[in-house]
Amino acid sequence: MNKENKQFDEIFRLLKKELRNFTTPVLSRSKWEEIVHTPYTTLISCLLSLRTKDEVTEQASIRLLKKYNTPQKMIELPIHKIQSLIYPVGFYKTKAKRIKEISKTLIDEHNGNVPESLNELLKLKGVGRKTANIVMVYGYNRKGFLPIDTHCHRIPNRLGWIKTKTPEQTENELRKILPDKYWDDFNHLFVKFGQTICVPISPFCSRCPINEFCKKRSVIKSR
Ligand code: SF4
What we know:
This protein is mainly alpha-helical. It has helices at 7-18, 29-32, 39-49, 54-65, 71-75, 79-86, 92-110, 118-122, 129-139, 150-159, 167-177, 183-196. The protein is built from twelve helices and no strands. 37% of the residues are buried. It binds iron/sulfur cluster.
């Protein structure tokens, strides 16, 4: 695929039609209504989501962020209290420590704000490219960023658009081949698509709206 390939138009049109009621990948819309949606709460929810199921992340985010939704409020909390609020997210002990450290850094070095810069976000301990990109897109509504999670990495490889081994490589390759006009839709569409149809093991190819465009690379078993 190259940037001029007309297939992108059709693929994005079909996915949008299929996933009309999709929601943002960090938290669903109804869950965001229960907490204040800010760059800080986006950042913390994303940290909680790493290696954790969506439902668990949602409940943990609400328990923690409903009340403690700023770095100032967060640093008042003892680590054991953060741990108990976010349990059972994966690596909850490490994440509790990290959340407190990051909140302190934000206060000490950024006047209590989340930096609106990918490079500055990446300097925060425990913040990787996926989280930094998510904050830029869903926290700050900035354009020109491509958050790559496991679905956004797996599906373009299955489709045959790219051949990459890591999410970082995927981000680099997609920046080269995916026309800019699709960047805003890419993450949330592909996350939802990966959660519902192009699932990690045995994808539902028989009811996939973009089946005819897919090379099914590395798909051993499908339904
Ligand atoms: S045809 Fe199968 S592997 Fe290809 S995108 Fe659709 S569900 Fe995924």
